[in-house]
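Entry 0007
Protein: Esterase
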Amino acid sequence: MANFVLVPGAWLGAWAWEDTARALGEHGHTALALTLTGLAERAEEGGPQTDLDTHIADITEFVERNDLRKVTLVAHSYAAAPVTGAAGRLSDRLERVVYVDSAPFAAGMRMLDLMPPEAADQLGQQVTAHGDGWRLPMPPFEVLSLSSSLDGLDEDQRDVLTARATPQPFGTYTQRLADHAAPGPGVDRVLIACRDFTGLLDTGVPMLAFLNNAPWRRFDLPTGHWPMLSAPADLASILHTAAS
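Output (structure tokens):
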């Protein structure tokens, strides 16, 4: 059985993985979720100095502190950035990386590179106006839906997401990934693509083409961008299959 380390995306904490972790446990796996610095129950630990390196260190230290081996490291959304960085540090502790509706970051890349310059500028303005110069509040759903599918989230789940989300330390979006970040060649690579991402992969977007080829293994999950909330049992089933 696998040792899963589940890393939440922007604005989320370990709480978002509760149902998926429970389902993985029913499959016989060990599933541990962590909260990154500055988020959820660790919100007070964050500050203007919190950046991508902070979150990479969070993941690395979590695995080492728990003395985990043969780790399957799972990244949702934003977590692709720190997970890619941590994968380069975990060496022989790491067996597999799984990107959930996300993809690995290249050296020198940052989260703001995934959006048009005008959208990145708008985020910076929100941080200045509403986030004390260092925190990015979660946008309203009508804004999120422009870039991320809300499929599968019922009204109650949206309410939970709104109530429990915490502002994201903006330094995690502005700092670029170091050149040495990447998993080793022997690490199993898995992609779980949700509905919108599946469409991008199937239309042959050049920068994503490598994800359709070995050594990558791709699984499709027909739900929106937050499958740990909208389809936790289905997500756990795919993770179980990938690790088996």
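Curator remark: The chain has one domain: 3-243. The domain at 3-243 is CATH 3.40.50.1820 (Rossmann fold).
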